[in-house]
Design a protein that fits this description.
Blueprint lengths: L6 H17 L4 H29 L2 E4 L2 E4 L14
Antiparallel strand pairs: 1-2
Helix pairs in contact: 1-2
Length: 82
């Protein structure tokens, strides 16, 4: 991904690639190129989400000090995706 892209644009493109691959492109080479692009988009989106999670880390003011707390449904860094 040489050009700058937003998380939302990357996610939209990833959904488009998924739909195109599900339709069954007749060319294996084209399918592999789309798959490779999709992998790069997944890496980009994952990195952006991790960056956002670190920024959010829910600061809570308790006894005049700021402390971080886990996201709801998260234990020891495991995310509840249900």
């Amino acid at each position: 991904m040489a050009k700058k892209i937003t998380f939302e644009a990357a996610l939209d493109r990833l959904e488009q690639i998924t739909a195109e691959l599900e339709q069954g492109d007749p060319s294996l080479e084209k399918s592999l190129k789309k798959f490779d692009e999709g992998i790069e988009l997944v890496k980009f989106c994952s990195a952006k989400l991790e960056e956002a999670r670190k920024k959010v880390d829910l600061l809570v003011k308790q006894d005049d000090t700021l402390t971080t707390v886990d996201f709801p449904g998260e234990k020891n860094g495991d995310q509840d995706l249900s």
